[in-house]
């Protein structure tokens, strides 16, 4: 009560604080951010326009869907999604600056040119005409269809399509203004046709540095970077040292796995009292399901997809033949041939009925029982009359396939679909319709066509993984903890040297971004956690941490070797990339100084100075090849120096050159001004898109708040 009383007495102070905060927000929203922290719903801004968490998540979801469909990893796409959002905002802003507008009529008129539709024959009639009215009616009808998930998915897809349309229109409009003057074409022809005959001396960088070593300092690298701020402008990054302690199974672990497999193969299971083993079982799939470390796979595999140990034996083997035991990587395996048949390619379509809490059930309220009843009723109708299939597409919880008439295209037994789905396709003929349950819900599947393929083999594999035992993990853990104790408070060089001395797996990713997803040289499920640890605000250079990889028992020790804020990159983080270039520059300076100090007045004198020889050659400005190297500065010097006069030292790509021009000739090549103009215009147009995007990004005010707000709860 006393506290409340004090607050009442000072109510004027509270009003003042609130008023100041509101004033700060009205005058400058960034001030509000500084006082109360960034809004977790806003991940960044592009020229003042916000990138919201929702639209970023939509873009990330689309990329993950595409990756999944292509059988690619869905992790580590966060940075790509961010770059696409930034570019999309820039394109939209430029599109609107040009006075253009994304109207409904423009959207639908351009839809047939978008890759999503242009590459799908389903959206075109027999004459090749786009079915605009039919497509528009379907997608506009989603809003009132009651299928909230599919409608929301279409809105996300539509936004991506709109950005692609704006980009295409923007690039087309600006590209149409790219012209090539007659003067430009004539100059290009002159550079192409003129040839200079020269004598020259080359002081090769590699040869010079072998006799005159040069040390590249951090300051040398920094000076090089400072002269090229756009090239070396970087995001916030971290330099991390990693020592990896894999939980490799011991010889005892190997023997244990082999003994377990042999027992199941020849002696029998404990549950059957030793009566049922893998050789005499009458239910192979159930035996594998109950006793194997890998699940039973009902798919048919081609010969080349089978383990090498059995691949050459299955063709002539009778059904029921057992192979093994044999070792395959970190597994002991016994295989039994169950069936042989040609593996068909299948053209199919489906309608997915998901239910609440299933992977595809976002926004779905129906229960699993309700989903089954609905799927069974649709399946019965479609089975009786396949022509009615399309009438139920608006109920499908797979909007991607629904947009294509439910089609999944041609699949084979190797297609990465869930096993239950593939089992139905492989076991049923053309024209069959059925309802199949998978982890995603209930699928009404209709098989439209089949083509015979290569011979496929169905094999039951009884597998025992060679896993590290608790005793093995304890040894790994002890080594890792001893290492972190040895390196506690030590320098990074000590950290690296102790790791190498102990023959531990050491790596040093030097330019790790917050949203890279994976660490170069590591690639474990703990990579993201290590990156998050390194970017924690509390983290300081020299900090180290211990990580355990769940499931494998591997241990990782991480050391923070450097913190780089947004701006010019840390010179040491790009040393491997820049050191050879900067070393050549330093060598070039020393070579030029030596030539100047010697007051050499002839090529022979320069050659004697460095123990090399005078050479002859021809150079051309447009294709400046000299010897085995491209040397544009040398070509420029050849046409800039007076005939018979020795040039100053020229810092080339592969060495320092001194030259004397003997003559200039014109080697007229085919092609008139018009042809050259068209060729230059085509080349410029091809380069334009990438250069425009880079220019927009280089000159944009891009604010990235992700590191600050990423782990905050969205409001």
TrEMBL record:
Q: Where in the cell is it found?
A: Cell inner membrane
In terms of Pfam families, this protein maps to: Rotamase_3, SurA_N_2
- UniProt keyword list: Cell inner membrane, Cell membrane, Chaperone, Isomerase, Membrane, Rotamase, Transmembrane, Transmembrane helix
Q: Which residues cross the membrane?
A: none
PpiC domain residues? 343-449, 568-663
Q: Does the keyword RNA-binding apply?
A: no
Q: Which GO terms describe its cellular component?
A: plasma membrane
* Isomerase is among the record's keywords: yes
User: Where primarily located?
Assistant: membrane
The protein's name:
Periplasmic chaperone PpiD
This chain's source organism reads Chryseobacterium taklimakanense
Taxonomic placement: Bacteria, Pseudomonadati, Bacteroidota, Flavobacteriia, Flavobacteriales
**Protein encoded by which gene:** surA
């Amino acid at each position: 009560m006393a506290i409340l009383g004090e607050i009442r007495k000072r109510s004027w102070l509270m009003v003042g604080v609130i008023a100041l905060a509101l004033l700060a927000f009205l005058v400058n929203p960034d001030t509000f951010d500084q006082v109360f922290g960034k809004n977790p719903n806003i991940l960044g801004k592009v020229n003042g326009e916000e990138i919201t968490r929702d639209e970023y998540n939509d873009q990330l979801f689309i990329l993950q869907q595409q990756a999944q469909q292509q059988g690619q990893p869905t992790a580590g796409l966060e940075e790509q999604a961010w770059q696409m959002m930034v570019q999309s905002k820039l394109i939209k802003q430029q599109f609107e600056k040009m006075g253009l507008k994304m109207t409904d009529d423009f959207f639908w008129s351009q839809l047939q040119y978008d890759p999503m539709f242009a590459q799908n024959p389903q959206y075109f009639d027999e004459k090749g005409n786009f079915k605009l009215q039919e497509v528009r009616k379907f997608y506009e009808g989603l809003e009132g269809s009651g299928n909230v998930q599919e409608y929301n998915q279409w809105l996300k897809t539509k936004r991506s399509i709109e950005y692609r349309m704006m980009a295409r229109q923007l690039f087309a409009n600006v590209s149409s203004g790219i012209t090539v003057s007659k003067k430009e074409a004539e100059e290009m022809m002159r550079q192409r046709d003129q040839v200079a005959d020269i004598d020259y001396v080359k002081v090769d960088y590699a040869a010079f540095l072998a006799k005159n070593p040069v040390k590249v300092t951090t300051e040398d690298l920094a000076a090089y970077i400072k002269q090229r701020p756009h090239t070396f402008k970087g995001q916030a990054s971290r330099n991390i040292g990693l020592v990896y302690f894999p939980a490799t199974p011991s010889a005892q672990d190997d023997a244990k796995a082999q003994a377990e497999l042999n027992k199941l193969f020849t002696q029998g299971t404990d549950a059957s009292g030793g009566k049922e083993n893998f050789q005499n079982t009458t239910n192979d799939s159930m035996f594998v399901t109950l006793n194997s470390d890998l699940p039973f796979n009902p798919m048919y595999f081609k010969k080349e997809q089978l383990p090498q140990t059995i691949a050459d034996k299955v063709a002539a083997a009778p059904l029921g033949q057992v192979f093994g035991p044999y070792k395959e990587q970190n597994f002991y395996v016994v295989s039994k041939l169950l069936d042989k048949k040609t593996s068909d390619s299948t053209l199919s379509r489906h309608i997915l009925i998901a239910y609440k809490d299933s992977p595809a059930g976002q926004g779905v309220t129906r229960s699993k029982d309700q989903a089954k009843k609905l799927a069974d009723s649709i399946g019965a109708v479609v089975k009786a009359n396949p022509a009615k299939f399309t009438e139920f597409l608006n109920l499908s919880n797979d909007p991607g396939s629904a947009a294509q008439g439910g089609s999944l295209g041609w699949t084979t037994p190797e297609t990465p679909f869930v096993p239950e789905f593939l089992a139905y396709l492989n076991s049923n003929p053309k024209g069959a319709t059925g309802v199949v349950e998978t982890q995603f819900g209930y699928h009404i599947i209709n098989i439209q066509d089949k083509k015979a393929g290569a011979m496929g083999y169905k094999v039951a594999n009884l597998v025992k993984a060679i896993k590290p035992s608790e005793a093995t993990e304890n040894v790994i853990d002890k080594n890792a903890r001893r290492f972190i104790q040895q390196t506690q408070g030590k320098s990074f060089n000590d950290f690296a040297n102790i790791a190498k001395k102990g023959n531990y797996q050491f790596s040093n990713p030097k330019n790790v971004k917050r949203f890279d997803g994976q660490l170069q040289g590591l690639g474990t499920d703990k990579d993201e956690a290590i990156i998050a640890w390194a970017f924690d605000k509390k983290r300081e250079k020299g900090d180290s941490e211990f990580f355990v990889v769940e499931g494998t028992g591997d241990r990782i020790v991480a050391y923070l070797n450097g913190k780089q804020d947004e701006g010019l990159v840390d010179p040491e983080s790009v040393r491997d990339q820049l050191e050879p270039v900067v070393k050549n520059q330093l060598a070039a300076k020393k070579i030029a100084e030596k030539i100047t100090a010697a007051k050499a007045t002839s090529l022979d004198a320069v050659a004697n100075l460095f123990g090399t020889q005078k050479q002859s050659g021809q150079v051309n400005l447009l294709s400046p090849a000299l010897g085995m190297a491209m040397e544009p500065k040398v070509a420029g010097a050849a046409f800039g120096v007076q005939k018979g006069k020795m040039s100053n030292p020229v810092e080339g790509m592969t060495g320092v050159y001194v030259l004397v021009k003997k003559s200039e000739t014109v080697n007229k090549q085919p092609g008139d001004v018009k042809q050259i103009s068209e060729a230059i215009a085509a080349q410029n147009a091809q380069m334009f898109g990438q250069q425009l995007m880079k220019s927009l990004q280089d000159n944009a005010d891009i604010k990235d708040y992700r590191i600050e707000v990423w782990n905050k709860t969205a409001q």
